[in-house]
What we know:
The protein has helices at residues 2-18, 151-155; strands at residues 33-38, 43-48, 54-59, 69-75, 80-85, 90-95, 101-106, 111-116, 123-127, 132-136, 143-148, 159-165, 171-177, 184-190, 196-202, 209-210, 216-221, 226-231, 237-242, 246-251, 257-262, 271-275, 280-285, 292-297, 302-307, 314-319, 328-334, 339-345. It has a 4-stranded antiparallel sheet, with no helix packed on it. It is mainly β.
Amino acid sequence: MKKLVLLGILVFLVLAAFSPVNARGSGEGPKGRVVIANRASGSISVIDAESDSVLGTFNLPSGDNAPEPMYVTYTKHGHHVFVGDRANNRVVVFDAHNFSTVTTIAAGNGVFHMWADPRDRQLWVNNDIDKTATIIDPITLAVITTVAMPADLVNEGYKPHDVILEPKGRFAYVTMVGGGGEHDYLVQFSTEMFTEVNRAPVGKDPHVSLTHRNKLIYVPAQNSSVVSIFDRNTLELVAELSIPGAHGAGMSPNGRVFYTTNLPGGGTDGLFAIDTGTHTVLGTADTPFAVPHNLVVTKNDKLFLTHSGATSDKVTIYHVSTTNPVPTLIGEVTVGLNPFGLTYIP
Length: 346
């Protein structure tokens, strides 16, 4: 009997080790996973953050149109992965344990960037055709409300693009792009009243990042080749750095280093590391493929970077750490076509 019990335990451990939803891959282990939205393949790829291997590829459920996954957000409460499907005006919710489809949630026309606060109280989904944001409860999966963007900016041709929520979830920050003016805008919203609190002019084609470590917000603007740093309570300008083609926005888990990508640079100086304490450039790294787009930094000292484009299928991986924050290329992985947004499941 003891031999049969031991044999059963051994078989279980072997099967668990090779399962795409094993302890490491379930988000409960020390290394976690990275989820990639493959915009042109209608799927997501799940990468083991330790071995850098693809654990699985999962198709979005069919819709009226071929699915078009854009950006991805993980929330720990409920253990869900949210994927914005632009072509079908919806958000697809996956179970982060086994990547089965939980449900779909209707959003507005033109689903683009999305972000949830660290406490998982609200998920903001920008709809750039409707000029709105759909606000979702990440736990109940119900739509809380739909927020209209500022009418004066919409009338001038601006539309919502990137979005992020601050650590306590009190404010959401939305970039408004595409107007004919000299600047684009960063708009601060109350997450209680869903009204505009403040705004600031920023460079053209802006994105956003922030950290619990300070009270700042970082705004790389590709078409102005600048990273602007604001006080995120008042939106007063604190510093500006000249960074060519600054686009992607990502933060180290400890908040000490802000990373941005030089998207149009063809790979030369494709990644910039910026010290969030001194507001100085720590160094740059070339990327082996063009169009370095979005990035995420994991808790095991790795940076994952998508390279977008209709025929692209590459994610590159870099070593970064507190002592060596400038990215060093350590590998690449092949995923679906046009890898776009990504998220980290710790």
